[in-house]
């Protein structure tokens, strides 16, 4: 099993894992991580992981392709924001942060892109008020009025 680099700090020996094989049907096999390579493959940027899975009925055969699910808990989960808050300018991705009644653009480091949402790895604190859908008219230091959050009704 190969674990992507973004998740390697969350996988350790002794951790449970659910293993599924399409050819066996919806049945899930509960396994335990027994060891890791303790080094990433330099080409794929993945960590090789060994999972011990009980196979008393012989349903799993050597070489079968399997999907593995871990319950990952990130020590420092990133801030996830609507993709529409990101502005890409000549000096890289930024977000508009409302401080007082002014907008200040802050450079950010992007993580995973989930389509409608994006992870921010650095650049703004979790408590920051961000400008949603900033237009090209909003410039550094622009005065704004903050609208109350939508209730979704």
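^ Assign residues to that structure.
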């Amino acid at each position: 099993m190969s674990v992507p680099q973004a998740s390697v700090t969350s996988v350790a020996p002794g951790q449970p894992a659910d293993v599924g094989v399409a050819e066996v049907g919806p049945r899930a096999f509960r396994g335990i991580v027994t060891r890791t390579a303790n080094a990433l493959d330099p080409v794929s940027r993945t960590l090789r992981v060994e999972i011990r899975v009980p196979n008393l009925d012989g349903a799993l055969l050597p070489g079968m392709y399997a999907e593995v699910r871990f319950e990952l808990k990130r020590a420092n989960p990133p801030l996830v924001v609507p993709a529409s808050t990101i502005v890409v300018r000549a000096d890289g991705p930024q977000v508009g942060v409302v401080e007082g009644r002014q907008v200040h653009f802050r450079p950010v480091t992007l993580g995973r892109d989930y389509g409608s949402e994006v992870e921010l790895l650095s650049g703004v604190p979790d408590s920051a008020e961000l400008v949603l859908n900033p237009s090209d008219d909003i410039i550094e230091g622009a005065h704004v009025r903050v609208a109350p959050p939508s209730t979704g009704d």
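The two ends are 45 Å apart (CA to CA).
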